[in-house]
Design a protein that fits this description.
Layout: H1 2-14, H2 31-40, H3 43-60, H4 66-94, E1 101-104, H5 106-120, H6 125-138, H7 150-159, E2 164-168, E3 171-175, H8 180-191, H9 202-226, H10 240-247, H11 257-276, H12 281-291, H13 293-315, H14 328-355
Parallel strand pairs: 1-3
Antiparallel strand pairs: 2-3
Helix pairs in contact: 1-2, 1-13, 1-14, 3-4, 3-5, 3-8, 4-5, 4-13, 5-8, 6-8, 9-11, 12-14
């Protein structure tokens, strides 16, 4: 998932001349760009779900003090991530200080979701599941709710509507990731934790992962075909390819019910596949990025920014108002090369993190 994210951020850096809205406009989006973007859709929901799962596994190792320890850690780490988003990470995107615009993106929503889970984890597991399902399945009923100005608009922008919040005459914030459905996803991730305890038989876990993955995808295809709830309607295009693109053109901001069903369904099937090859050498190589994900996230943003500025200085604004690549093929090649180049650095930091557990702040990266 981290590598899919890298691909998407390379696209956002070097393909700005063909930026895509959410959901995408099928008639003006080339298929290679469309499906690259759809592939990257997997990242955020899987990240948030796995954050909830990781929180449960963290708690399971704390004995009688499990929930209290997990709640405290989630609260501290959540605050840390929110602060990181509006400072170090926002600067990587804008290179402005103080910034005129603050983009509240995936690390912001991870932080807020962790803050929410620090309280929700005290609920009984069945209530947590019910809450998670209700929020993910029902939040699209609120799509027609809007507020114009005032405190309610600010609250609603944070919770459910992607919008600008005016902070001062010289600064405004963009709620790129409205919070509400992500709370449902992190709650479901935490509730899934018991399946991944060491004492659970791998074969039993694998069967259930497959059932959930297939079930979510069947649900997606049926509800999407009915075309009445869960996202904006799809349409029959001028060709089978355009119709297919419209069918899979789901909304990420905030993540619709169909978006969550599709991405988590695929995510569960990938997880089942990885369970079967968990000792493969290639998977061990990829897993390095997951051993220090926040370090990789921060480093790759700054690397991309410096590469963009370097390209602009050498070749100028070769794509209208931007420097960029002429094709998505160049985006894919750049992402692969960057993964190869950054791997040793991430591995070195992951080894340091594992070796120096006495350095408290390292565990937050």
């Amino acid at each position: 998932m981290v590598l899919f994210m890298l691909l998407d951020h390379v696209r956002e850096t070097f393909f700005l001349h063909h930026q895509v809205p959410d959901p995408m406009i099928i008639g003006s989006t080339p298929p290679d760009l469309f499906f690259s973007r759809v592939l990257a859709h997997l990242c955020a929901p899987v990240f948030v779900f796995l954050t909830g799962l990781s929180a449960f596994l963290y708690a399971s190792g704390k004995g009688d003090n499990a929930r209290s320890a997990a709640s405290g850690f989630l609260w501290r780490r959540g605050l840390f991530l929110v602060l990181l988003e509006v400072t170090v990470i926002n600067f990587a995107w804008t290179f402005q200080f103080p910034p005129a615009k603050v983009f509240l993106q995936v690390i912001w929503i991870l932080g807020l979701s962790m803050l929410a889970l620090s309280g929700l984890l005290w609920l009984p597991r069945r209530w947590l599941i019910a809450l998670g399902v209700a929020v993910v399945a029902g939040h699209n009923l609120l799509d027609a709710v809007h507020f114009s100005g005032g405190p309610l608009q600010v609250i609603w922008a944070v919770l459910h509507e992607r919008a600008w919040i005016v902070i001062s005459e010289t600064m405004k914030a963009r709620t790129s990731y409205p919070l509400l459905p992500w709370i449902g996803l992190i709650a479901l991730g935490y509730a899934a934790g018991p399946w991944f305890l060491a004492q659970i038989q791998a074969a039993w876990r694998l069967r259930n992962i497959l059932r959930v993955g297939v079930g979510l995808l069947v649900f997606f295809f049926v509800l999407r075909a009915l075309n009445f709830y869960g996202d904006k309607p799809w349409i029959t295009g001028e060709s089978p390819l355009l119709t297919l693109m419209s069918f899979f053109n789901v909304t990420k901001y905030p993540p619709s019910l169909l978006f969550c069903s599709l991405t988590l369904g695929v995510g569960f099937l990938l997880l089942a596949a990885l369970e079967r090859v968990q000792h493969a050498r290639w998977l061990t190589w990829i897993a390095v990025f997951g051993s220090a994900p926040m370090f990789f996230y921060i480093v790759h943003l700054y690397v991309l920014k410096f590469l963009y500025l370097g390209g602009e200085a050498i070749w100028g604004l070769n794509q209208g108002k931007f420097f960029g690549f002429a094709s998505m093929g160049a985006v894919w090649v750049t992402a692969i090369v960057l993964a190869l180049l950054l791997h040793p650095l991430v591995r070195a930091f992951a080894n340091l993190k594992a070796r120096r557990r006495d350095i408290t702040w390292l565990k937050y990266l």
